[in-house]
């Protein structure tokens, strides 16, 4: 599942490509991790939101709430579950990115493998969003069974949106949106690096 992606393009480029408003200057890192802010296109605007829906668990020892955990991926076969279904029905968004990463290699020595589209240096993947008490507006990335070369790296991948699928995801019916949740059939570029997956070690 995707726990890291890269977004190196400017806010103005995102707004222009996806015909979105961009009235507030946003700050986001080029590498986006769960629990940190990223850019999304929601309700016709480029907005900053936290990547991940907050999941609040309780301590087994004290019964007190623990620090919320960001649930940043939404599996297509779980869209009807309580955590996701209202956002899928009412609040679908675009997540702009230039590449996403998966971890490969033995435990403790995993490295970053980046996946991207060779014919598009900025593209959108499917997302859903909501407002939360913990972090304000937050979003989750829709993941489906991997297709093509992406399956060489991981068994799941983000739902990539192109052409008229971009508008259908945002404003179509639930059935129309669900029909888009399939593995990408186009070319995927794979860059296997030696950079350690753990960002503190890298």
From TrEMBL:
Return the EC number. 3.4.-.-
Pfam families, alphabetically?
SRAP (PF02586)
**Which GO BP terms sit in this record?**
protein-DNA covalent cross-linking repair; proteolysis
Q: Keywords in alphabetical order, please.
A: Covalent protein-DNA linkage, DNA damage, DNA-binding, Hydrolase, Lyase, Plasmid, Protease
Keyword DNA damage among UniProt keywords: yes
Q: Which family does this protein fall into?
A: Belongs to the SOS response-associated peptidase family.
Which InterPro entries does the annotation name? SRAP (IPR003738), SRAP-like (IPR036590)
| GO MF | lyase activity; peptidase activity; single-stranded DNA binding
PANTHER family in UniProt: ABASIC SITE PROCESSING PROTEIN HMCES, DC12-RELATED
In Swiss-Prot or TrEMBL terms, this protein is called Abasic site processing protein
Q: Answer whether the UniProt record assigns the keyword Hydrolase to this protein.
A: yes
Gene3D superfamilies from the xrefs? SOS response associated peptidase-like (3.90.1680.10)
Q: Give the first-level EC class, as a single word.
A: hydrolase
Source organism per entry reads Croceicoccus marinus
């Amino acid at each position: 599942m995707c726990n890291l992606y890269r977004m190196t393009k400017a806010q103005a480029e995102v707004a222009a490509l996806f015909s979105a408003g961009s009235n507030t200057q946003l700050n986001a890192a080029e590498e986006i991790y769960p629990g940190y802010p990223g850019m999304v296109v929601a309700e016709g605007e480029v907005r900053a939101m936290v990547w991940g829906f907050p999941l609040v668990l309780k301590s087994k020892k004290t019964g007190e709430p623990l620090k919320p955990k960001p649930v940043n991926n939404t599996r297509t076969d779980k869209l009807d579950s309580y955590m996701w279904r209202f956002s899928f029905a009412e609040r679908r968004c675009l997540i702009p990115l230039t590449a996403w990463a998966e971890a490969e290699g033995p435990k403790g020595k995993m490295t970053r493998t980046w996946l991207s589209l060779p014919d598009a240096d900025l593209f959108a993947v499917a997302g859903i969003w909501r407002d939360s008490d913990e972090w304000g507006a937050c979003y989750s990335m829709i993941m489906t069974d991997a297709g093509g070369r992406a399956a060489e790296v991981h068994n799941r991948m983000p739902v990539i949106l192109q052409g008229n699928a971009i508008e259908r995801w945002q404003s179509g019916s639930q059935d129309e949106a669900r029909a888009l949740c399939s593995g990408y059939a186009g070319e995927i570029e794979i860059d296997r690096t030696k950079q350690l997956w753990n960002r503190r070690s890298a």
